[in-house]
Write a structure and sequence with these properties.
Elements (H helix, E strand, L loop, with lengths): L28 E2 L5 E2 L10 E2 L8 E2 L6 H5 L7 E12 L2 E12 L2 E8 L2 E7 L4 E5 L6 E3 L5 H4 L16 E9 L2 E9 L6 E7 L5 E8 L2 E8 L21
Antiparallel strand pairs: 1-11, 2-4, 3-4, 5-6, 5-15, 6-7, 7-8, 8-9, 9-10, 11-12, 12-13, 13-14, 14-15
Length: 242
């Protein structure tokens, strides 16, 4: 059954500062009794649950506590995965496939969209972009992130939402894997967005955005591989990106 989704703002999708509402598909069953161990005591509006693993304090995810929970998540420093992003409009759609490799503070993205192959390397010092067949990359030193170039939401932006904008939040499980689902609505366009984030890895799992009943955006990601990426962070001229 189709779920309505919650909205989130993402700045700067590929060179432009844009507002994008991203929705996360709610999959799996809800279980209000599941809790996440927290490293420190939660905020005053947290629901603290006794009997957490290891005796740690834990918090049940609700729309009033989900920001506290998300604030405790951390992404791995090394991983790789595949991401598919679909965009829909009246009479058409576009699909972009991304192979993403993260190694400490650098990211390598190989993108295929409409038969065009694009490569992006993001480091602390610069961003390098080139297309298949190019011998030299385009280089710029502005701030960038792998989320922007893979056209996905930076879910940490949920932390900046007003609590009144969060419509629902809960633990869900997909194939036995615990995830956090958040639903909220904000902005003048009235999009509804929902997201699912891996509890273990702190990575965005799926997203959908709806304009009313019309799907306009969908994102899905493969399971992350936590081994050191085999991809080379090498520019088309043979140099290593720094």
């Amino acid at each position: 059954m189709k779920q309505r989704m919650f909205e989130i703002t993402v700045a700067g999708l590929i060179f432009a500062t844009a507002v994008i509402c991203v929705a996360f598909l709610l999959l799996g069953s809800r279980d209000a009794q599941i809790v996440i161990p927290l490293p420190t005591a939660a905020a005053t509006d947290a629901v603290v649950t006794a009997g957490a693993p290891g005796g740690a304090e834990a918090i049940a995810v609700t729309k009033t506590t989900v920001q506290n929970v998300i604030a405790t998540l951390a992404r791995p420093n090394v991983y790789s995965r595949d991401i598919m992003v679909e965009r829909f409009w009246n009479g058409g759609n576009a699909v972009s496939n991304f192979n993403v490799a993260i190694f400490n503070k650098s990211a390598l993205l190989k993108t295929t969209s409409g038969g065009t192959e694009k490569n992006v390397i993001v480091t602390e010092n610069a961003t390098y972009i080139w297309y298949a067949g190019d011998r030299e990359p385009f280089v710029y030193s502005g701030e960038a992130s792998s989320d922007e170039f893979s056209m996905i939401l930076t879910y940490e932006d949920i932390l900046s939402l007003d609590k009144s904008e969060i419509l629902d939040a809960a633990f869900v499980t997909t194939n036995g894997v615990p995830e956090i689902s958040v639903m909220y609505a904000t902005g003048e366009l009235g999009y509804v967005t929902e997201c699912r984030v891996s509890v273990e890895l702190g990575l965005l799992v799926e997203a959908e955005v709806y304009d009313g009943d019309t799907l306009i955006y969908r994102m899905s990601a493969s399971e992350a591989n936590l081994d050191e990426p085999t991809a080379q962070f090498r520019l088309p001229n043979g140099e290593i990106a720094e």
